[in-house]
């Protein structure tokens, strides 16, 4: 039922009500992301404190253009617009307020960076030359495809019988007092709860370094845990020393998926190892065929030649 007085509520107030309504169904990391977007972007829009019923599609288009001109990426702008759209959908459902049409900006997809075989070999040689906890983590991610938060959250008890069980992730989030601290949360999605068999060589390396089951996998005498921020920092040093440009930690996940396809993995198996809910996500986002794989595939047609 429409409540007329709610049409005078502004977008920020409605956004806070939307977050409060949904807070028990959202992960802490997701909730904090929504709160950040509301405070740092939506609250600064020209129409943020206007009556929600008076905001037009033209207002939102102008806001999108301003965001793009401030050097935000199209992906980030669309994330902000998605939240605005969710707030309007909530307003319509709860109070019958008709939402404006929201036009998303065009996101030009850039080719995802994947290590070539020679780059991967160079990368691995460096990691193996000094197999400290950071380098072990990098090697582990390269041959399992785990996300950085999943890697940092691992404890020795999660690794046994030649396999690793992924059932949590690590974030650095703000607590109720606004202070930043490390938190352990559920994985990204339900399908991210998974068991990954380890390649034999990696299992041998891991077992040779096994510590007490109560400690973190990447802990050491001087470091209780390796949080994602520290891992990112160390990873940046490795890529610089190995002269690898345009590489992020997530590149390891894409590289793992690509090498798996090149080695003949079926898509369903790879999808489950990566923790995806469907094979399409795996094929569309994480499989990047190398020129060599394309050449070998094309040469299969030779048997048809007369």
Give the structure's gist in a few sentences:
This protein has 306 residues and is mainly alpha-helical. It is built from 13 helices and five strands.
Structure, described:
By secondary structure, the protein is mainly alpha-helical. The protein folds into two domains: 4-95, DNA polymerase, domain 1 (Orthogonal Bundle), CATH 1.10.150; 117-297, hpI Integrase, Chain A (Orthogonal Bundle), CATH 1.10.443. It is built from 13 helices and five strands. The strands form two sheets. It has a three-stranded antiparallel sheet. A hairpin with a 2-residue loop joins strand 1 and strand 2. The termini are far apart.
- Element string (H = helix, E = strand): HHHHHHHEEEEEHHHHHH
Order of strands across the main sheet = 1-2-5
Q: Report the count of strand segments.
A: 5
Helix content: 40-55%
- CATH-derived topology of the largest domain: hpI Integrase, Chain A
The chain-level mean pLDDT equals 87
Question: What proportion of the residues form beta strands (DSSP E)?
Answer: 5-15%
The fourth-level CATH homologous superfamily of the largest domain is Intergrase catalytic core
The CATH architecture of the largest domain is Orthogonal Bundle
Measured between the Cα atoms of the first and last residue, the distance is 73 Å
Shape: globular
Radius of gyration, rounded? Answer: 23 Å
Which structural class best describes the helix and strand composition? Answer: mainly alpha
